[in-house]
Task: inverse folding
């Protein structure tokens, strides 16, 4: 009886020594306030499937000023670099790390046509995202 | 004193009217983008004590940086004639001032957030791809743009002898 009690006590004591798994982290790379500002009022992006060495089409629907972003990651981290292989005609592109993702931001020029297209090559892996930009559909259509 | 000169340059370049669109010639746009990247990295080198990384960047891309700088210089000479050099100098100064202002706005986030530019630039697999990397960073401040002409465009200067007649 005493032996069993001692074993239970030992087991209870050892429970505190077992390393508990850490709670899932939201992002192990730092997020910056500046990267959260200025998102377009309307921004939707089609599902993105990145495949090394291949081109993937992406559709972005945005309007109302500000940036609209496509987020991709490389094994849970941002890509090492992004190259603008086809610049947009009517806007600006900014490829940057945001937390654990690479975010490809498109910002239309004021007063420019609402449709556009551009392409970004991701390093490493040489995946290319071809992004078509469209304006949001008017309400009621 | 530097701040006063910077403000005067800003007024000189910005008060002359709205800037024109970005470069119509892709090679010139690429040169302005690379120049903006180099300028941003030089600011990071000073403000964030990244001189070693800056030196590595310049060492790796020396040939490309010189070539792109010549394109920018040529654009100013083409646009402003004999005043090209002074406009080029003003642009370089204003670019650095504007980028520095953006950095000050970001406060303590500036160095860690933009410091990754060094590792990203060094990760570009081919030296010839530097313009495509620079183009993806959008480093030319909105107030400045590239290939922006202010004031009247360059005209052929009449010869002094002809003017005297």
Result:
């Amino acid at each position: 009886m005493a032996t069993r009690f001692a074993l239970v006590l030992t087991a209870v004591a050892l429970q505190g020594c077992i390393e508990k798994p850490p709670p899932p982290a939201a992002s192990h790379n730092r997020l910056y306030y500046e990267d959260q500002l200025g998102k377009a009022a309307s921004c939707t992006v089609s599902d993105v499937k990145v495949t090394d060495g291949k081109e993937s089409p992406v559709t972005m629907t945005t309007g109302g000023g500000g940036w609209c972003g496509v987020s991709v990651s490389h094994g849970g981290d941002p890509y090492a670099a992004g190259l603008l292989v086809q610049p947009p005609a009517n806007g600006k592109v900014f490829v940057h790390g945001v937390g654990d993702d690479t975010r490809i931001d498109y910002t239309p020029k004021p007063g420019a046509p609402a449709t556009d297209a551009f392409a970004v090559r991701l390093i490493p892996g040489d995946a290319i995202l071809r992004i078509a930009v469209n304006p949001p559909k008017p309400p009621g259509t | 004193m530097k701040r006063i000169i910077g403000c005067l340059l800003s007024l000189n370049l910005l008060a002359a009217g709205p800037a024109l669109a970005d470069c119509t010639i892709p090679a010139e746009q690429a040169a302005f983008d690379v120049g903006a990247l180099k300028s941003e990295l030089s600011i990071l080198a000073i403000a964030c004590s990244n001189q070693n990384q800056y030196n590595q960047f310049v060492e790796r891309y020396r040939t490309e940086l010189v070539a792109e700088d010549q394109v920018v210089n040529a654009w100013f000479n083409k646009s402003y004639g004999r005043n090209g050099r002074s406009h080029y100098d003003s642009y370089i100064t204003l670019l650095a001032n504007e980028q520095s202002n953006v950095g000050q706005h970001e406060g303590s986030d500036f160095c860690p957030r933009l410091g990754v530019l060094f590792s990203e630039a060094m990760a570009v697999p081919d030296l010839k791809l530097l313009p495509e990397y620079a183009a993806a960073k959008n480093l030319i401040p909105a107030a400045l743009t590239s290939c922006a002409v202010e004031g009247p465009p360059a005209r052929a200067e009449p010869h002094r002898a002809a003017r005297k007649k």
